[in-house]
Write a structure and sequence with these properties.
21 strands; four-stranded antiparallel beta sheet; Heat Shock Protein 90; 9 helices; alpha+beta; 2 domains
Length: 369
């Protein structure tokens, strides 16, 4: 991807996009605007932090509220760094880091190298913006939108009092095979020891499965220095509030074929007892949630997705579907090739809790009682 980015563009991007100084050439801005900027942009919106209205404005584009990355650094104290060689911004610290690769021809976003369909960013008028949802879902910042006042109020999220660390499985790599297998582990003085052990065991077992599958493929294949194999994984914390922890685990394998393969799996736990939750536990307040999902997914997978190159063929959601939870709601995840070609990517569909639950009811009903 870097071949599309000129060296002078990288340097000016670092200087200009965050601070908003007009140092980027007009031609550079026009290129970014023509390829990235949406047309339905609304006037600037106010941003409040710790009760104070900031001088920097946010914007709305096609109904999405966007926050300048400069605000995260300058007002919220979130670390932001830039690598000119890869044209990549790193936003945040700890167990979730947001990576934004941005040039005049593309903007690519991921969290810990995991990129879902809800992750976006935009260059607009020489500034870099990310949607409000990314702050809420992955950076530990609560964001409330007041449409009447056209104001976003930001505050720190009330996260679970736990510590999350990344652990790696030992495995020998060489010029023919590369292993980089990690997994999250949780701890905390308020955690039930049995619950902590149960959660950590599930997460470590998942990583061990990745490593074992990789070693099996190596034993059955013929990796060479010219055509090496690679196996890796990563994770992102999607929800860490109200006694619930939801984690996205993503595995990658490359056996020197036409392309590698990626598998994404959601794990949602109750911290009270260490239970690995099913979707029915999350949506307990709506015993008929499957009827809604089956109807809507059938329309999307057998309709618009087919128009984008998908295969169609959806009938019913699995008894225990693959999913993860964010502040934005529940995301249902399908496998590569399950309903579309490789180029389509991993099919996933996000539904707000308002769509899935009766008015006035809450997710995770009865889990922490």
């Amino acid at each position: 991807m870097n071949k599309h980015t000129k060296k002078w563009g990288s340097a000016l991007l670092a200087a200009g996009i965050l601070v908003g100084v007009a140092v980027v050439p007009v031609s550079y801005i026009e290129a970014a605007s023509s390829k990235q900027q949406a047309t339905a942009q609304q006037p600037g919106i106010s941003i409040k932090w710790n009760g104070k209205t900031l001088s920097t404005k946010g914007i709305q584009v096609n109904g999405s509220t966007l926050i300048p990355v400069a605000v995260l650094r300058d007002s919220l104290g979130i670390p932001v760094s830039y690598d000119a060689k890869t044209t990549t911004y790193t936003v945040g610290s700890g167990y979730n880091k947001l990576f934004i690769m941005s040039s005049s021809s593309y903007t690519y976003v991921n969290v810990n190298r995991i990129s879902t369909r809800s992750m976006t960013a935009k260059q607009i008028a020489g500034k870099l913006y990310i949607p409000m949802s990314l702050l809420k879902d992955y950076l530990g910042i609560d964001a409330q939108w007041n449409a009447a006042q056209k104001t976003v109020t930001l505050s720190k999220s009330q996260l679970n009092p736990i510590t999350i660390t990344s652990q790696s499985l030992p495995a020998s790599s060489d010029a023919k095979v590369s292993y980089k297998v990690k997994y999250p582990q949780i701890s905390g003085g308020q955690l039930n020891p049995e619950a902590q052990q149960a959660i950590n065991s599930v997460l470590k077992k998942q990583a061990e499965g990745v490593l074992a599958a990789g070693k099996k493929q190596v034993a059955e294949g013929e990796p060479t220095v010219e055509r090496p194999y690679a196996f890796s994984n990563d994770f992102a914390i999607a929800y860490n509030q109200q006694g619930i922890l939801s984690i996205i685990m993503e595995d990658y394998s490359d056996t020197a074929g036409a392309h590698g393969m990626t598998a994404r799996k959601g794990y949602t736990f109750s911290l009270a007892d260490g239970k690995l939750m099913q979707l029915s536990d999350v949506l307990k307040a709506n015993p008929n949630y499957k009827q809604f999902l089956n109807s809507d997914l059938k329309k999307k997978i057998n309709g618009p997705m087919v128009n984008e190159g998908g295969f169609g063929g959806f009938k019913d959601i699995a008894a225990n579907p693959n999913f993860y939870v964010t502040n934005s709601g529940v995301t249902i995840v399908f496998d590569l090739y399950e309903y579309g070609p490789y180029a389509y990517g991993i099919p996933e569909f996000t539904y707000s809790f308002g769509q899935l639950l009766p008015q006035g009811s809450k997710p995770f009903a009865g889990q922490n009682e």
